[in-house]
Each structure stands twice: as C-alpha cells, then as structure tokens.
Amino acid sequence: MTPPRRLSRLTWPDLAPTAAASVLAVPVGSTEQHGPHLPFTVDTDIAAALAERLARACGWIVLAPPVHYGSSGEHSDFPGTLSIGQEATELLLTELVRSADAFAGVALISGHGGNAVPLRRAVRRLRGEGRRVHFWEPSGDPADSHAGRAETSAMLALRPGAVRRDRAAPGDTRPLQQILPALRDGGLSAVTPSGVLGDPTSAAPAEGRRLLDAWATGLITASDSWRPVTPLGRG
User: Fold this and answer.
1) For 33, 77, 88, 224, which has the most beta carbons within 10 A of its beta carbon?
2) Is-contact 43 66, C-beta < 8 A?
3) Is-above-0.70 flag for pTM?
4) What is the pLDDT of residues 46-80, one digit of tens each?
5) Where are the alpha helices (DSSP H) in the chain?
6) How many domains, in total, are found in the chain?
C-alpha cells in the first residue's frame, strides 16, 4: 500500500502533474445524534476511514477533506444535530464535483444513509453533464441501521475513547422498512426516544475491525471500474 495523497498536505504545484490521471475521493458524512453513547461524527468518521483505506490501496486516488454536513432532518428533535437538508446537500455535492474537473473523476464515499437520495440525484445530474462521478456506500442490517451494533463496533475499532459503553442500550430493533412511515411522519424520535435503531450492547472492537475490512474490500473492488485510463505510475 502507498501513503495516501491528501489535499490537506498538498499544494497545487504538487498535484498539477498527476491530477488528470487521478480520482478525487470525497468522504461524505453528517453531524447528527447517534444515541446516548456515540458522538455526532460517526458517519463522517466511518466514511473518512474507508476513503483513506481506498487511497492507501490505490495510488491514483487523491483524498479530499470530508463533507461533515448532510441531510439529517429526521434527527432534528435531538440537540446537536446539524442538517442542511436534501436540496442543499444535492447542490453542495453538485457544485463540489463541478469544481473538480482537473481530476479524471470524483468518487463520493458516503457514510450516512440519509444522504442517499440527494447524493443519487446529484450523481444523475452530473453524469448527464458528462462528468465522471461515482457513488459508494456500505451495506448493513436493516434492523441495525443507526447507532446499533455495527456502528458502535466500528467506532470501538476507530475511536474507542469516543464510545460511552456504559450508556449503550437497545433501541428500536425492527427492520427499517417497518418503521419508515412513522419515521417520515414524525422523525426518528417518533420511533426511538434514545435515537438508536438496533442494539449496541453486544458491540465489540474485533467485530468493528471485521466490518471495516469488509466495507473497505467492497469499496476497493468497486473502485476497479473508476481507475483512470491515463497511467499514473503508482498503485
């Protein structure tokens, strides 16, 4: 694996010779409640970690700083959630990708399911404009979709000091499809007072590492179709 190339550590003359043969990877997350036991940045932390693994595995990837805000209106009843809504998320990502024409393409690595609709709309519009843009998000158990076992395990692997294990308690464990009507009408607080969908009590760091490995493998496999035609001589 090669050291990741990060915009946060490069200057434009550093990047200019290879930009046209590189794909920009942008982690897309959110700032929203994740129950009483996890920090607001879970989705961004996971997206950034997976994008970094992609950049380490593929030398033709350049890693962008994360997008920390997205569409999280369903969490608005919980203090600290910061949402820019679907329209603003779509516009933000559309303009961001339009500004990255120096690259061979842009890959949007999403860690927040609530961004899926505006993200897909942005990708459709951008592809209609002839831009090379890609979208990837990890899969998961529909009965463990928010601050449950999977996300808690992943955070125990990534940032164990940020997890309040003594506060972890089961939330609503019904599959997401069953609670979607109530969630759409009244937000997440209408189905789970704690903000948790799933059961984080059995989360473990080892499971988090396995999950992150599996997600990273899926992301790297998907990226095979994103590789620029112009050779870069790395990765």
Assistant:
1) 33
2) no
3) yes
4) 999 999 999 999 999 999 999 999 999 999 999 99
5) 12-15, 42-57, 85-98, 116-128, 149-158, 176-186, 205-222
6) 1
